[in-house]
Specification:
Elements: E1 32-34, E2 39-45, E3 50-55, E4 59-64, H1 65-78, E5 88-90, E6 96-98, E7 103-109, E8 112-119, E9 122-129, E10 141-148, E11 168-173, E12 186-187, H2 190-197, H3 199-204, E13 208-212, E14 217-222, H4 223-226, E15 236-237, E16 246-250, E17 255-261, E18 285-290, E19 294-302, E20 307-315, E21 322-325, E22 330-334, E23 339-343, H5 353-356, E24 370-371, E25 377-385, E26 390-397, E27 402-407, H6 419-468, E28 477-488, E29 491-502, E30 512-520, E31 532-540, E32 548-554, E33 567-576, H7 577-581, H8 588-592, E34 608-618, H9 620-623, H10 642-654, E35 670-677, H11 678-685, H12 694-702, E36 719-723, E37 729-739, E38 748-757, H13 760-777, H14 790-811, H15 819-837
Helix pairs in contact: 11-12, 14-15
């Protein structure tokens, strides 16, 4: 069995044999040869027992099996352990008998070695004589050579690398050739031999060397034209003037196999003159198979007036890796997925009148391959077991496994079986059918799951590529987040609305999940506060291109938690790779096969793909609730819940008066102000293009992201009072002021944004929201900076430092809220912080 003719990825690794010699039975002794390069072809010389091994880009090596057997016996007799496995013999460099890197194929024929080498686009066939046992001189002598000029292999251009397919060599002998031994050769019947190679070759009884090239040419060369007496220099070039090369056919695709078949069954009562000489009968059909499935069969058609050659082309399912023929009419060939058998036996019972005219010698019009259900086979060989009277098919898989299949001969007579044997065979067949059906069902389920996984992964990759390749700020799949007030369970609460919009050309199928993460910043008003994150997941069943889906999350405070603003909201699409592999897969190695370790798509837990969509901040200004008409600064507070009022009054009546402390409702309003240059705001808001007063435009700008403040845009108001998510109140007042002490050039016109609330926490959150808007949106309207009084600024800084030291001193004293002294300390602190929150500075 020879290796695959194409050193493709299915070919065994370098240094491993890709062949089996069917004529040797190594039942007790197994020798492993480690070759220096990839093995392309191997042939056995029976006497003396030698292996000839062709290694890629190296040459032909000769290994003696007799010597290796003695070495194995010595190794077994010593009983000593060695560093490597027993029975492994490296093929040394001195075993190379033909050190030629251009060699591509060879064959053994009696006392000759025939080689094929490629040099500068031409093929050279060289004939070498094997040494005699008593010869002491040079072991191998080149007798002659002949040149071939095939065309470019199909699919190769002039500047392309050399074809990866190897040529094919075999020998066809005439019926009268006696004493001829050939490795992988065959004997042809006289009519077919004469029709193919000519009457001269038949009269000389010269064996013919058949060559199949990667370009598709099938050529023949007579051995006697090469082995005639050599010239004086020891090597004779028979290429000129009349080369003995004959082109038999052109397949137009790389040839991977040349063989011969016996398509006609010989009757038992044939005449004596029609019988073959001693030995096996000759073959009556020559076949050549191409890599892509094209096959040609050549046979002699014996008609009444004359014998004419018949040539018929067939098309098999490719690509074909290897093939093999036996003594019958069947040919076996292997593809990546199966081994199939075709039968060229044609008994003349065709219903086609055109076929029946030529008698029993015609070839079948079509071939019907029969599957053997054996896949991934890279080498085939047929051997006959004379003792058992049947044939054996040896198949070598791509993973190095050798499979032996017994083949029944079509001429075998039917053997009568006893009822017990019939019942046993029926049970075996039914058991085999059941096992096969179960395995087919399991494999079908696995294939279906793999197909679904690949389809899902393809869709995931398309969506990922669309998001990652989109420009910054414009994504084909976007998620927009807004804050709203909604009535949930008869109670008004703040909610966020996530609008997922698919503007891409791909559909979000089942398996995608929208993840919304709410991240709260540590509160400056509380000690030991930390960041906290909450993630909500929303499975997406299906979102077709152009469709939208809106999801709502409640943000209002509950009995156990409170709403901490501002919130950072991050939206992302997540796809679990475990959903692709199925719930039964728990191995992380299966997940690593999909994406590399450094892939930017993998989530931190390496179990899914995470695609960020958007990130935004929800602050106090977005969560305020405004009435139908904005109240003024002196408007009465909204009526409270009667149940809460009743419980509060009842609690105050039961508590002793002496333990009563200053309630929050009696505390003064917490206030803070920010002054921004009028010129800066005019440039940022572009109010010069409209008639809206600057104060009204500033208030609209601050509340532009609040959906409930849309009514304010229809009126020119400079103040607004809103309700916080927990029911507290926040007052916003915008007015124009003049800063007289900052610049020697005169007053600086500014806009003052005043924030007031009974709750210090609400005032601080509102202050933070206003500053964030000035930092984000006000930088684009920067104008000219006027001259400033630096001494005045230093004095303000000094006053602030003194206030901070005084506040720290008061905080280090007795705890606040204990007695009259604690209340006085708290009042002083409030006055200090009020001064700190209202500096005499302006944002320029």
């Amino acid at each position: 069995m020879t290796g695959c003719h194409s050193p493709s990825p299915n070919t065994p690794r370098p240094g491993t044999p890709s062949w089996v010699c069917p004529g040797i039975r190594l039942s007790l002794e197994i020798a492993v040869f480690r070759c220096p390069e990839q093995v392309w072809h191997v042939e056995l010389l029976p006497q003396p027992r030698q292996l000839y091994i062709l290694c890629a880009h190296s040459g032909i090596y000769c290994v003696s099996l007799e010597q290796q057997s003695r070495l194995m016996e010595q190794t077994d007799g010593d009983g000593q352990e060695s560093n490597g496995p027993s029975g492994v013999f490296p093929v040394e460099a001195d075993a190379c008998i033909f050190p030629d890197a251009s060699l591509s194929m060879f064959t053994l024929l009696s006392t000759f070695v025939i080689t094929l080498a490629q040099d500068e686009g031409k093929w050279w066939m060289r004939l070498h004589e094997l040494p005699r046992p008593e010869q002491d001189g040079p072991p191998y002598r080149q007798v002659s050579q002949v040149e071939f000029c095939p065309g470019t292999p199909p699919g190769d251009m002039g500047d392309a690398p050399p074809s990866c397919f190897l040529p094919v060599l075999c020998c066809a002998a005439a019926p009268g050739a006696m004493g001829l031994w050939c490795s992988g050769g065959f004997v042809l019947e006289e009519p077919l031999f004469s029709l193919l190679f000519g009457i001269d070759a038949a009269m000389l009884e010269s064996p013919m060397i058949l060559c199949g090239f990667p370009d598709g040419q099938l050529c023949s060369v007579p051995l006697k034209a090469l082995s005639s007496s050599p010239a004086a220099d020891g090597c004779r070039d028979v290429s000129n003037p009349a080369p003995p090369v004959k082109i038999l056919h052109h397949l137009e695709e790389p040839i991977v196999f040349i063989g011969a078949l016996r398509t006609e069954r010989r009757a038992a009562d044939d005449d004596a003159e029609d019988e073959q000489p001693a030995g096996e009968p000759g073959c009556d059909c020559v076949v050549a198979v191409g890599h892509y499935g094209k096959m040609v069969a050549m046979k002699a058609d014996q008609r009444e007036e004359a014998t004419v050659p018949e040539l018929r082309e067939y098309y098999l399912r490719g690509p074909i890796l290897c093939a093999a023929c036996g003594s019958g009419s069947r040919m076996y060939y292997s593809t990546h997925s199966d081994i199939s058998a075709v039968d060229l036996d044609w008994a003349g019972d065709s219903s086609d009148p055109e076929d029946t005219e030529s008698g029993t010698g015609v070839l079948p019009p079509v071939l019907s391959p029969a599957s053997l259900s054996i896949c991934s086979v890279v080498a085939l060989s047929l051997s006959s077991r004379a003792s058992e009277g049947e044939s054996e098919l040896l198949a070598l898989s791509a993973k190095g496994r050798l499979v032996s299949c017994g083949l029944c001969s079509p001429e075998e007579p039917d053997v009568e079986l006893t009822p017990a044997e019939i019942g046993r065979r029926i049970k075996e067949l039914l058991s085999g059918i059941g096992d096969t059906s179960e395995r087919v069902s399991f494999l079908k389920k696995a294939v279906d799951q793999r197909n679904r996984a690949l389809a899902s992964l393809n869709q995931v990759m398309n969506v990922s590529a669309a998001l990652l390749s989109s420009q910054e700020g414009h994504k084909p799949i976007a998620c927009t987040v807004t804050a709203n007030w909604s009535c949930l369970l008869l109670q008004d609460t703040v909610t966020i609305s996530c609008l997922l919009e698919n503007c891409s050309e791909y559909s979000l199928e089942e398996g995608w999940t929208l993840c919304v993460q709410l991240l709260t910043s540590p509160c400056a008003l509380e000690e030991e506060s930390m960041d906290s994150a909450t993630t909500f997941t929303f499975p997406i069943d299906q979102l077709l291109p152009g469709n939208k889906r809106e999801l709502t999350l409640p943000l209002g405070p509950t009995a156990d938690t409170k709403l901490d603003l501002p919130l950072t909201i991050s939206c992302a699409l997540y796809y679990s790779l475990r959903d692709i592999l199925g719930s039964g897969s728990d191995s992380s190695e299966d997940l690593d096969d999909f994406l590399p370790d450094d892939s930017p798509l993998l989530s931190p837990d390496r179990e899914g793909i995470c695609l960020p969509l958007s990130q935004c901040t929800i602050d106090m200004l977005q969560c305020l609730r405004f009435g139908s008409s904005p109240p003024g600064p002196d408007a009465p507070p909204a009526p409270s819940d009667p149940v809460k009022t009743f419980l509060k009054v009842s609690r105050e009546q039961t508590e002793p008066e002496e333990g009563k402390t200053l309630g929050e409702e009696n505390l003064p309003l917490s206030a803070a102000s920010i002054r921004v240059s009028s010129e800066l705001l005019k440039n940022a808001l572009k109010t010069s293009e409209t008639d809206v007063p600057l104060c009204c435009a500033t208030l609209r700008w601050l509340l532009a992201e609040n959906p409930g403040a849309v009514e304010l845009s229809g009126t020119e108001v400079a103040s607004a009072c809103g309700t916080a998510p927990d029911g507290g109140h926040v007052q916003l007042l915008v007015r124009e002021v003049a800063m007289n002490d900052l610049s020697p050039a005169g007053p600086i016109q500014a806009v003052e944004i005043l924030m007031e609330s009974p709750s210090l926490a609400h005032m601080c959150r509102t202050h933070h929201a206003v500053i964030r808007r000035i930092q984000v949106h006000g930088a684009g309207g920067a104008g000219s900076t006027p001259d400033l009084r630096m001494q005045y600024l230093r004095q303000i800084q000094t006053n602030h430092e003194m206030l901070l030291k005084e506040a720290q001193t008061l905080r280090d004293q007795a705890p606040l809220g204990e007695g009259a002294e604690g209340s006085a300390t708290a009042e002083k602190l409030r006055n200090i912080y009020r001064q700190l929150r209202n500096p005499s500075l302006v944002v320029l």
